[in-house]
Design brief:
mainly alpha
């Protein structure tokens, strides 16, 4: 049951990512690529603060102090990822840009799983998993063919 809920949440998140990418790219066309990324992160931070207001400040402060600072780089990566999406979606379209990002993410994730990067459990690289990334790559190529 928990796995089914997680799969549903993943599917829902995927739909939201596609909508977010399109909205962010359109915002980028209006105000600029980097500027739109900043706006997106400010609005997201404000929304997160509203949600965090329900958590006792001492709990948040304790968790923050216990967190290695190197993990904060995710915020900078988020800015680069959003700005990159805002830049590539207008000329490539949402489907191709998403396919490229997803395929690259799958490839990197496959290696990370195999090596156990970031302290996570190891999931060995198998022919089936490689074939999955190969299918994603083929799908990306098929989507890209319309642009050639």
């Amino acid at each position: 049951m928990q796995r089914t809920i997680a799969i549903g949440a993943g599917l829902g998140s995927g739909v939201l990512v596609a909508l977010m990418m399109r909205l962010n790219a359109t915002l980028g066309e209006h105000v600029g690529v980097l500027e739109s990324s900043v706006i997106v992160h400010v609005v997201g931070s404000l929304f997160a603060m509203v949600l965090l207001a329900r958590l006792p400040l001492t709990t948040f402060a304790r968790r923050l102090r216990a967190t290695p600072r190197r993990l904060w780089i995710g915020g900078a990566l988020g800015l680069v990822i959003v700005a990159g999406g805002n830049w590539v979606i207008p000329p490539l379209g949402l489907a191709l840009a998403s396919a490229i990002v997803i395929t690259a993410t799958l490839g990197c994730s496959l290696v990370a799983d195999h090596c156990g990067w970031f302290g996570l459990a190891r999931f060995p690289m198998t022919a089936r998993r490689l074939a999955g990334v190969g299918c994603a790559t083929l799908g990306t190529i098929l989507i890209a063919l319309r642009l050639l």
